[in-house]
Design a protein that fits this description.
The protein has helices spanning 15-25, 47-58, 73-79, 92-108, 128-136, 150-157; strands spanning 3-8, 30-36, 64-69, 84-89, 113-118. The longest helix is centred in the middle third of the chain and has 17 residues, at 92-108. The chain is globular. 39% of the residues lie in helices and 19% in strands. A five-stranded parallel beta sheet has the order 3-2-1-4-5, sandwiched between helices. It binds 4'-phosphopantetheine. 4'-phosphopantetheine (PNS) binds next to strand 1, helix 3 and helix 4. 4'-phosphopantetheine binds next to strand 1, helix 3 and helix 4.
Length: 163
């Protein structure tokens, strides 16, 4: 069984992320969306909120499931027999950052391949930070995130402008 992981903070999940999950599910038997925490970052959404938003968005697809991991990605892929680490790329800036991580992960977990998937053009400008900024000023984020995530994003970020 070919398994892939889509790791990230997903704070919050966007339409761009969901598009990558669904396209990855066409290539692999099982796709695990792995909600991780980068200790260098502050998160506006709890791990539970981040997971619930993703689960709501992919509930119709049995090939995709959500998991949480707070350790090294390489350790997770080795423990779970995962063949591929999927990363979405929107720009050369994304690539610079992701290339470094891919090399480190290759060294730590040699059996897993990092697979880069390009964002659809219509999702290239969407990011979690853009969504957080719009929502914190009371803007409408429904064009950028799955409909199942809108209520949580608006409730958590309303009037929160210190992002
Ligand atoms: O959505 P993000 O914040 O860009 O996701 C980055 C993330 C969480 C995928 C990355 O920081 C990561 O893999 N963290 C886990 C710890 C780890 O394995 N670090 C070494 C990667 S080379």
């Amino acid at each position: 069984m070919k398994k892939a992981v889509c790791p990230g903070s997903f704070c919050p999940v966007t339409n761009g992320h969901v598009d990558i999950f669904r396209r990855a599910a066409e290539l692999f038997d099982e796709v695990i969306v792995l909600v991780m925490t980068n200790p260098d970052k502050h998160y506006d959404f709890s791990t539970e909120e981040r997971c619930n938003m993703i689960m709501g968005a992919v509930a119709d697809d049995p090939r995709i499931r959500v998991d949480v991991w707070n350790g090294l990605l390489a350790e997770y892929v080795q423990k779970n027999g995962i063949n591929a680490i999927i990363k979405g790329l929107r720009s050369a800036t994304d690539f610079d950052y992701e290339f470094q991580m891919a090399l480190a992960n290759k060294s730590l977990a040699p059996k897993a391949e990092t697979v880069f998937m390009t964002a659809r053009p219509e999702n290239m400008y969407i990011s979690s930070s853009l969504v957080r900024q719009i929502a914190s000023f009371g803007g409408d984020v429904s064009d950028f995130v799955p409909k199942e995530a809108v209520e949580t994003i608006e409730r958590v970020l309303k009037n929160k402008t210190d992002i």
